[in-house]
What we know:
alpha+beta
Amino acid sequence: MPQSLVKMLVHLVFSTKNRARLITPEIEVELFGYIHGIVENNQSKLILANGTENHVHLLISLGKTMTISELVGDIKRDSSKWIKTKGSEFRDFHWQEGYGAFSVGQTQVREVMQYIARQKEHHAQRNFEDEFRYFLKKYEIEHDERYVWD
Length: 150
């Protein structure tokens, strides 16, 4: 076969450092637009982005030559630099060190998109830490909770 055809869908989740509430409604749309550009520049596709004041959810179709760790590193580094230019209230903005990356099958896309779209509703009743624990359990990811949070 002369072509390499790939579709790798991933649900990325990560928070601000110490879950600081720095993603304001005023900056959120612009932040997701900026992240969209980062993803596209990495030959990947941002399908949907949403979150709350302290974390983001991204549904991404990963490019065939891109690794998840490279893409997340670029997203965090570049968006953190960018947001610090948006005003003094963002000068201490940092993302957490780690992230969650969860595989998504094509038949799960609609469900994941609905979940991401309803982030603010979910978090009226569940905090980020409990949500992240839920994903770790759902995807059967072994972890030591002492090293999950920063």
